[in-house]
Amino acid sequence: MYLVIDIGGTYMKYGYYQKDGTCINQDKMPTIKTNKEDFYRCLQKLVKDDVEGIAISMPGLIDSQKGYIHAITLLPFLIKQLFVKSFMNMFIFLSLFKMMLNVRL
Question: Which residues does UniProt assign to the signal peptide (predicted)?
């Protein structure tokens, strides 16, 4: 399954798709504009265990090869950020934290 996210000024629209492009589910939520931690946490909640890939679109001057955001007026806390690296780091940290909570001694 693939997760597709369209980050807009008012809403983040997202959907889960099968490999053949069939939409399994889609929805939207308000775009988090307060800070990058809350923003990344919101994105991370969308990632389910069976997600094999993620596609994200957003307005701004973005180097899609490096995942670097040069300019984005919508979310100024993401300017001059390696978006992909930051998102993956937060996702990995939260996933490891969840795994540690599930370990029974």
Answer: none
